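@channel sequence for tomorrow's demo:
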Amino acid sequence: MKILSGKVMAIAAAAATLLLSSCNEKSGAITIKVGDNWGATHPMGRAIQEVFKTEVEKNTDGAVKVDVYSDGTLGNEADLWNGVRNGTIEVAIVGTPFNQEWSVSMISDWPFLYKDLNHAKKVWTSSIADDLNAQFHKKFPEAYMLAWGPNSARTFTSNKKLTSVADFVGQKFRMPSNPIHVGIAENLGASAQVIPLGDLFSALETGVVDGQDNGMVTVLSQSFDQVQKYIYETNHIIATLEIIVSAPFYDKLTPDQQKVVSAAAKATTAKAWDAYIASVDVDRKTLKSKGLTVTPCTAADQEVIKQKIKPLTDKLLAEQTWAPALIEKINQL
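structure tokens (generated this afternoon):
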């Protein structure tokens, strides 16, 4: 059984944070608390440790320290987002918990948007990302968006047979609190239930839901392979994780320190994209070795899915007036 983060871990993390803050005040070092809702084995989780922490501490000669709290230790995505907004957390790695306030961020979850994973990396390391970063800060002056990394190419998993589009009908799936994800499940004939990631293992284990949608990397890092039997490799969304920073904290850094933090964030996501792309085949083999039935979604199956979710995509295009122009830019890359 997976051991989930809980109040004990949160209390321990808070105590550690207070202790570190006290020590750093004495030493004069600035501390960046990084909150991450993902496991340390996720490509973004590894890159935060190996690239962001290393580069920030090295390139500021130790004047800025980085403490990373993975696996939801500082809370779920909404908690992390609120922490950055109110300044209690300096940096967070999140998806788009702000998508209801800033609809443009829904592009991160737009179905079947890219040619492949390399195209997704190209988009989110291009000027498109820079433009959206500027829009984000205009919408949320209390925070900055620094870089866009990989979440995963999302697949569906279930305890019930799931090897074709027809198998969705009647199943219960946990979906993120996002109208795109919920709409996809419902258009495919399933029911959707919003459950925080930290509670998902238990919900799958106890049968509250039959399945969920996440990348294979997340299935492994969150131990969902222990409580699921089938994976349907739909790749319906190539989702992103964003590095955001509290504006009051960032603005107090020296210009050189800001450059270091910003460059480290971009280097982190570039490394994470490469690591994620390289991990997909390995993750698939690992899941098969653990006894899960992994079914590829053929091009014909994907076309069936696209037709079934057309009511959702038509509605999105009609309501989100910014979407056609941005999608065109993405298609041109």
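heads up for whoever presents: Residues 1-26 have pLDDT under 50 and may be disordered.
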